[in-house]
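Q: My collaborator sent me two sequences in one message, no labels, and asked for predicted structures for both. Can we handle them in order? The first one she listed is below.
A: Yes, handling them in the order given. First sequence, followed by its structure tokens:
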Amino acid sequence: MSWLFGSALKTTMVTPERALPGRPSPTYAVPTTHTVLGTPLRGPWPEGTAVLHLAMGCFWGAEKELWQLPGVVTTAAGYMGGFSPNPTYEETCTGMTGHTETVLVAYDPQRLSHVDLLRHFWEQHDPTQGYRQGNDVGTQYRSAVYTTTPEQAAAVASTRAEFQERLTRAGFGDITTEVATAQEAGPFFYAEGYHQQYLDKNPHGYCPVHATGVTCPRPLDV
């Protein structure tokens, strides 16, 4: 999905002053229902549902990985962590909005713990690559976690430390994942309708695997 739109493949984060201006409202409609799970993309969701925003490269494959986890209520592809309000996909791909391709994950923490969700996140991409994932190069492909609760933030810190230890032993470098609260990162902007559950609609579509092969420690690991 590393298409060339304008100044795509930028590997330097744009500043707020240089970012595209964006717009006060989106230019497109977003579907209301998840095509696989049949749940609302924007809510309302059952009481107790938690929301975590995860960026791990191309959001097509990332969303599919996440909607398959037991306990996930819904997922949605979007843009987060940037400066331009209501960006389009083409604008995000220039690197001039500051956003990264992000998946909103709404989940039941009684069925899928914060820690288990984050373990899956770390294991399913390479969080050491900076502004890229494999051949997808640019700030829009950077690894990021945007939390909505203190409990999630604590789980990010603990799982990151554990995974870094395993990565180091396997010969990988330092984790470069951007970690912030959702409030610090700014709004999650839903991507265009054709991006939502893209690999359900296009089962043979682009879906690279960027996992390192390193696993997070689990209880009973020896």
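Q: And the one she listed second?
A: Here it is, processed independently of the first:
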Amino acid sequence: MSSETPSLREDQISIAEWIADGARILDLGCGDGALLDFLQRERRVTGYGIEIAPENIIKCLASGVNVIHSDLDRGLSDFDDNSFDYVIMTQTLQAMRYPHLVIREMLRVGREGIVTFPNFGHWKCRLQIARGKMPVTEHLPHTWFDTPNIHMCTISDFEDLCRQEGIEILQRRAVDTEHRAAFGMRLLPNLLAELALYRFRRQKP
């Protein structure tokens, strides 16, 4: 990794390790474009980011990232089938109106999909719910009235969806907020992991 790596979040650093050199990438909800910028320089990838926030679009353009202003809930109809090697969505799945439809679109336009999301099944979330409160934790810092998250899920929920949709999970990382993967998180990821990262594709016929 180069000296620019610290500008990436920990989950983005892990994702970069999954990307093959020269791949074609679509980054959904790309934010300031840091991941795509890094991949362009270090993995020689090509592709686009999709972002809705104007301030982030300005940052993408300033760093030389090709970015499209679009609302992900409207789908990816501008892109043909199998246009990309990887379609990436980090920390955005839970903010989608129809997450399952977004995942279908990811695997329509891309050979593989990569997502990261906070695990609502973590024991801290369960404890606060048992106390009659919506969870507020390090990995879910928003209160119920100002959160952008509208479809929270657990690791088990996501894997159930993959089975229902005929999706093959290629890699999974279940970690804490500092991106550490202790033995307990590998043994009981739905209970002990705070964040989940998945790489997946359509099951082969």
